[in-house]
Write a structure and sequence with these properties.
This protein has one domain: Metallo-beta-lactamase, Chain A (4-Layer Sandwich), CATH 3.60.15.10. Strands 1-2-3-4-5-6 form a six-stranded mixed sheet, covered by helices on one side. Strands 7-8-9-10-13-14 form a six-stranded mixed sheet. It is of the alpha/beta class. Strand 5, helix 3 and strand 6 form a beta-alpha-beta unit. The protein starts with a strand and ends with a helix. The chain has five helices and 14 strands. The longest helix has 13 residues.
């Protein structure tokens, strides 16, 4: 059975997720650890839970979702996976972080595996389908497990809100149209795990999200 463990990291209060099942294999989604204590928190949880990371998945490549990418790559020997349309953000991370008073030694590592709409990501007994929803960032993708009705939504859909679209590559109309086209067709009882804030459901957002 697919399970989700949530961590809240860095000054942007970003949600980093561990997705894991009964095999013990797991995927690290959006490693946002900025401080050493946060890196230790993630690694200690992985060790305590007896998990084996086999995937690093990125919903998108904004700085708050990649602060811990180098650590995850170095610690677990894995290559990041992301959508090609967000790769341009990697080279901007260090300079952009400095604008927020965050000093990074170097830009994060460039993802080597490219994920596209309809791709299947597999680990353990789990299969995730990739849903491309641009608008917050050009290469924003979500990971959906239909069997257990779990959607890892990045910064596309939040409880009562949607992702901001005023960042480079953002497009509000495209974001709303694609959310309605691809996400609002999912079952009401799909649990949504967003990139910030509390989890919600597709049904809740269909019925009460003022942006949709």
């Amino acid at each position: 059975m697919l399970q989700v463990k949530t961590f809240v990291f860095n000054p942007f209060q970003e949600n980093t997720y561990l997705l894991y099942d009964e095999t013990g294999e797991c995927a690290i989604v959006d490693p946002g650890m900025l401080f050493d204590a946060e890196k230790q928190q993630l690694s200690q949880a992985i060790e305590t839970m007896g998990l084996k990371p086999v995937k690093i998945l990125q919903t998108h490549l904004h700085l708050d979702h990649v602060f811990g990418l180098q650590y995850a790559v170095d610690t677990y020997g894995l290559k990041p996976e992301a959508h090609a349309d967000d790769l341009f953000l990697i080279s901007q991370t260090k300079d952009y972080a400095r604008q927020f008073g965050v000093n990074m030694d170097a830009n994060p590592p460039m993802p080597e595996t490219i994920l596209n709409e309809g791709d299947l990501v597999k680990f353990g007994n789990t299969t995730l389908s990739v849903i491309h929803v641009p608008g917050h960032s050009p290469g924003g993708i979500l990971f959906y497990n239909a069997e257990h009705k779990i959607l890892v939504a990045g910064d596309v859909l939040f409880q009562g809100s949607v992702g901001r679209s005023d960042l480079p590559g953002g497009n509000h109309h495209l974001l709303i149209d694609t959310i309605n086209e691809k996400l609002m067709v999912l079952p009401d009882d799909v649990t949504v795990f967003p990139g910030h804030g509390p989890q919600t459901t597709i049904g809740n957002e269909r019925n009460s999200n003022p942006f949709l």
